[in-house]
């Protein structure tokens, strides 16, 4: 039986932190928001540094509190898939705003910090907008290391998914710091090339997927 710690306060924030305030919990939610339903091994690979027993414990807690669910994958795949419940999906704006709040701290990150390219999916959704929604759909692939994500702009919306797409309109590859700087608008493509970025494809795509404007009093993304 799980014995979850509690602040024992009659406060919505305290009750929320009783469920998702432990270390690694919101990062598990982040992975499931980005990946959708996935296997335990995929989840663990997206959480470098977590102990296997701790991940299992956190998943049990989240299942008990109705944040995640497990179900068998359809045949012929023999695997259990983990996904967010509607209650878990409701954490998306919380995770996005925390990511937005924390983005300026990336400038002080240590070189030893671990990185996974798919983490850029939330950054892209937070930072980018479709500046020409009346034009046909475009896709841009981001690559860093052995992993990639695809960003799609269509009808004014930005969507992301893990993995590549056949025949992307543009491909942007390079070190994670430079990719984040491009997404957040603190570096243009010319300076990005000096920082090790490689850009292939339609040059108009990067112009269409420009960072959102920062209004007065707002915290910049980077």
Measured on Cα atoms, how large is the radius of gyration? 19 Å
Instruction: Determine the oligomeric state from the structure.
Output: single chain
Task: Determine the strand fraction and express it as a percent band.
Answer: 15-25%
CATH superfamily of the largest domain: Winged helix-like DNA-binding domain superfamily/Winged helix DNA-binding domain
Q: Ranges with pLDDT <50 over ≥5 residues?
A: 214-222
> Which geometry do the CA atoms define?
globular
Quick one: CATH class of the largest domain?
A: Mainly Alpha
The secondary structure category is alpha+beta
Number of alpha- plus pi-helical segments? 10
Q: Distance N terminus to C terminus?
A: 43 Å
Whole-number total of structural domains: 2
The side-by-side strand order for the widest beta sheet comes to 6-5-4-7-8
Question: Could you say what the CATH topology of the largest domain is called?
Answer: Arc Repressor Mutant, subunit A
Description:
The protein has 222 residues and is an alpha+beta fold. It has 2 domains: 12-107, Arc Repressor Mutant, subunit A (Orthogonal Bundle), CATH 1.10.10.10; 117-211, Nonspecific Lipid-transfer Protein, Chain A, CATH 3.30.1050.10. The protein is 37% helix and 20% strand. The chain has helices at 12-20, 25-35, 40-45, 52-64, 86-89, 92-102, 120-127, 176-184, 189-194, 203-208; strands at 68-72, 80-84, 128-130, 138-144, 147-154, 157-162, 170-173, 198-201, 209-211. The strands form 3 sheets. The protein has a 5-stranded mixed beta sheet with strand order 6-5-4-7-8. Strands 1-2 form a two-stranded antiparallel ribbon. A hairpin with a 2-residue loop joins β4 and β5 (147-154). α6 (92-102) packs across α7 and α7 runs parallel beside α8. The longest helix is centred in the N-terminal third of the chain and has 13 residues, at 52-64.
């Amino acid at each position: 039986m799980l014995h979850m710690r509690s602040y024992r306060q009659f406060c919505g924030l305290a009750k929320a932190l009783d469920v998702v305030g432990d270390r690694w919990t919101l990062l598990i939610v982040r992975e499931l928001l980005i990946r959708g339903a996935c296997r335990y091994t995929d989840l663990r690979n997206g959480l470098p540094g977590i102990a296997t027993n701790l991940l299992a414990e956190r998943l049990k807690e989240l299942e008990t509190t109705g944040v995640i669910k497990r179900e068998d994958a359809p045949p012929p795949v023999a695997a259990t898939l983990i996904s967010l419940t509607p209650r878990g999906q409701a954490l998306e704006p919380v995770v996005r705003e925390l990511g937005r709040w924390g983005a300026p701290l990336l400038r002080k990150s240590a070189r030893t910090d671990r990185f996974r390219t798919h983490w850029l999916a939330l950054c892209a959704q937070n930072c980018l907008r479709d500046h020409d929604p009346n034009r046909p759909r475009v896709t841009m692939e981001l690559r860093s290391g052995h992993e990639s994500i695809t960003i799609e702009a269509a009808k004014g919306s930005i969507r992301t998914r893990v993995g590549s797409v056949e025949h992307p309109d543009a491909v942007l590859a390079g070190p994670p710091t430079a990719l984040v700087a491009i997404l957040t608008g603190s570096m243009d493509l010319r300076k990005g090339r000096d920082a090790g970025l490689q850009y292939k494809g339609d040059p108009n795509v990067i112009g269409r997927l420009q960072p959102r404007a920062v209004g007065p009093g707002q915290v910049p993304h980077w």
